[in-house]
Design brief:
This protein is α+β, with helices and mostly antiparallel strands and 127 residues long. Helices cover 20% and strands 44% of the residues. The protein has one helix and seven strands; from the N terminus they run αβββββββ.
Length: 127
């Protein structure tokens, strides 16, 4: 008979079972195609906040409701003023997982409340 304590044997079996369960989960996820497809990114804008003499910031939340993650995700917000002038703000999110969200802000020199503001995702790369 071995000199290995029973507690050590039980913990070794539990560890091995956990490794097998995780490996099985990853295999099933890969088989079902999880992580493949296209990201579906929505940009939700919050009310603009004044930065004093430094301009304005428009906070945003980017949500990925698609089946795949997005890396290097580029976002833009465009402000169209009543006189026809346009201002753009850009942001880049390094990685946005499927089902995840990220917060940030777009900077503007002019008060966004004085014009029409729209936002969209410009592009991404597959990680």
């Amino acid at each position: 008979m071995s000199d290995t304590p029973i507690v050590e044997r039980v913990l070794g079996l539990v560890g091995a079972a956990l490794v097998l369960v995780m490996a099985g989960y990853l295999l099933v996820a890969a088989w079902n195609g999880e992580g493949r497809g296209t990201p579906a990114v929505t940009v939700v804008l919050a009310p603009a906040q004044s930065l004093g003499g430094a301009g304005w910031v428009v906070p945003f939340r980017a949500l990925n409701q698609g089946s795949a993650p997005a890396a290097g995700l580029r976002l833009e917000a465009e402000l169209v003023l009543p006189d026809g002038r346009r201002e753009r703000g850009e942001a880049v999110i390094d990685y946005l997982a499927s089902g995840a969200e990220q917060e940030g802000g777009f900077f503007f020199a002019t008060d966004p409340g004085s014009g029409r503001l729209a936002s969209r995702a410009l592009g991404y790369v597959q990680p």
